[in-house]
Amino acid sequence: xxxxxxxxxxxxxxxxxxxxxxxxxxxxxxxxxxxxxxxxxxxxxxxxxxxxxxxxxxxxxxxxxxxxxxxxxxxxxxxxxxxxxxxxxxxxxxxxxxxxxxxxxxxxxxxxxxxxxxxxxxxxxxxxxxxxxxxxxxxxxxxxxxxxxxxxxxxxxxxxxxxxxxxxxxxxxxxxxxxxxxxxxxxxxxxxxxxxxxxxxxxxxxxxxxxxxxxxxxxxxxxxxxxxxxxxxxxxxxxxxxxxxxxxxxxxxxxxxxxxxxxxxxxxxxxxxxxxxxxxxxxxxxxxxxxxxxxxxxxxxxxxxxxxxxxxxxxxxxxxxxxxxxxxxxxxxxxxxxxxxxxxxxxxxxxxxxxxxxxxxx
Length: 362
Hints:
Helix content is 33%, strand content 23%. The protein is of the alpha+beta class.
């Protein structure tokens, strides 16, 4: 395996019911570069990725301010962390933190820290409230969508397109509503958690397809993998999927990445509607939680991203062969309460406490 004596920071460490992509990104990087130092940046000491002793293990973890604290608070914390862990690369894995990373990217570059993020314009154009306008401009099918801070306007819109319909938070969460009463209730919940606007979207029946990839910032795709979701969680997360080869998906993905000049990881979410037409209903500005699956079959996109950021010769990507599938399952991570106490009190922790085998097996 190649050697790469660098330090990479990843965010999005939760692998529970609503899994994030930081842990599988870490596992993918460690699988290609075993001597790589990987540190986690987290908002909550209870995120499960802090405590894993497996391939996604972290050499250290640090708490950082919540995104609402703003870009200056994030940069100040990274400066503090860098005194102990000189970071070479940051890979953000959460939608809500991207605006802060986009704003501080020039300062990160000055500090020698590399980070692949889209431009502020591209990030805004693919947002849920603006996606329909983008799709119309580049002729990509998408469900009818309306964004508003006024529930009455959304109720009027859904009355026209028909129930049931999806109500979505600005960054996360999607709920299927079946009546005006349910719409108002869900609207208030989403506004409380994520703020406005809330989005109402036409429900399109069909199979779900996802495309994960990397844009080069000039309009081309460095690499991508397409799957059909076979199982979904209550929140719509893919719990099982199979690789597909679909030229129509590839064409739509290329059209979107080219229009945005997208730089860095992305995930496109489609529904294949009646007649076989793919309709784009979301573009996420980071790797998906299932990104560790293609890495395990030789299509390691996080490793390719790191090679690109560090300007080292890229390792060959094997073909992402159709028919290969994954099924996610859950395990219990065993540790010591002292790990949690250290992280919660000091805001940082080195390594993972391993429970002795004699204790585990007794």
